[in-house]
Write a structure and sequence with these properties.
Elements lengths: L5 H16 L3 E7 L4 H46 L3 H5 L13 H13 L3 E7 L1
Antiparallel strand pairs: 1-2
Helix pairs in contact: 2-4
C-alpha cells in the first residue's frame, strides 16, 4: 500500500466501524422482585423515574423558550440598528432546539429496580 492510500484506507475502516456500531440496539428485560415489599419498592422507583423524566422535559422546554426569547430580542435589536434595507435583510431569527435527555433517568431506574430485588437483563441486538 502506498503512503498516499493509507489515510484513505484508514477513513474506510473508521467509516465501516461507525456503521457497524450504529446497528447495535440495546434493550432491557425486567423481572420484578418476588416479594410484595420488593414490588412496592419498584413502584417507588417508577415514580422517581417519571419525576426525573418530567424534570428533564421541563428543562428542555425551558432552554428552548429562553433561546427563542433571546433570538427574538436579537432579531428585533438587529432590525433597530440596521441602517439600510440591505442590513435589515441580514437580520435573522436563530432556530432553537432542545430535547430531553432521559438516559440518566433510565439508568437510575434500572439501578433502583435491581436494588429492590428485581432483575434486569441487558440484551444487545445487532
Amino acid at each position: 500500500m502506498t503512503q498516499s492510500n493509507k489515510p484513505h484506507r484508514l477513513f474506510e475502516v473508521l467509516l465501516f466501524t461507525l456503521l457497524l456500531a450504529g446497528c447495535t440496539t440495546i434493550r432491557y428485560e425486567y423481572f420484578p422482585p418476588a416479594t410484595e415489599q420488593g414490588r412496592y419498592c419498584t413502584m417507588q422507583c417508577s415514580a422517581i423515574k417519571d419525576n426525573c423524566e418530567g424534570n428533564e422535559i421541563n428543562r428542555a422546554n425551558g432552554e428552548r423558550f429562553a433561546c427563542e426569547q433571546r433570538s427574538e430580542y436579537q432579531y428585533h435589536d438587529c432590525l433597530r440598528h440596521a441602517r439600510s434595507d440591505g442590513e435589515a435583510k441580514k437580520c435573522f431569527r436563530q432556530g432553537c432546539f432542545s430535547s430531553p435527555n432521559t438516559w440518566r433517568c433510565e439508568e437510575n431506574y434500572r439501578q433502583c429496580f435491581v436494588g429492590c430485588g428485581g432483575i434486569v437483563h441487558t440484551i444487545k441486538e445487532e
